[in-house]
Amino acid sequence: MSLILGASNFLYYDGEVLFAHAHKRIYEEAGELVGPKPPGLHIKRCWSCTSQNVVTCPGLKVELPDHQTVLLTSVPLDDQGWEGLEESMFLALKDGEVLTQN
Questions:
Q1: Domain ranges of the chain
Q2: Closest Cα to residue 65, out of 43, 49, 80, 41?
């Protein structure tokens, strides 16, 4: 018997390592809600992501540090360098580096 309770995307930080799990999410397409479907999370690995070290979208401005950074979001914040994570992907990150990815 298979039990499906719904999509689950999460970020958990234990004070040292950030854990992320990507599953599915509901999307808006042509004004209609569809899904849930993957990707549930998107990742952008940055080493000086932009010439200004700033990622912006309506209502949000993220100033990036001068060292390697990883951004995780539900939807891409701009059209540059975001990768959708596969369904059921798990990541462990520390100091801007991906330690584990399965």
A1: 10-101
A2: 49
Is-contact 38 23, C-beta < 8 A?
A: yes
Q: How far apart are CA 57 and CA 54, in angstroms?
A: 10
Tokens 């992501």 — which residue?
49
Strand partners, 39: none
> pLDDT by residue (tens digit) across 15-51?
999 999 999 998 888 999 987 899 999 998 876 555 5
Residue whose C-alpha is closest to residue 87's, from 37, 50, 43: 37
- Positive or negative: CA dihedral 23, 8, 65, 79: positive
Task: Say which residues have a Cβ less than 8 Å from residue 69's Cβ, sequence separation at least 6.
Answer: 45, 46, 47, 49, 96
For the whole model, what pTM was predicted? 0.79
Distance of alpha carbon 50 from its chain centroid, rounded? 18
Percentage of the chain lying above the pLDDT 90 cut: 44
DSSP 27: E
Its sign, for the CA torsion 25, 79, 83, 100, is negative
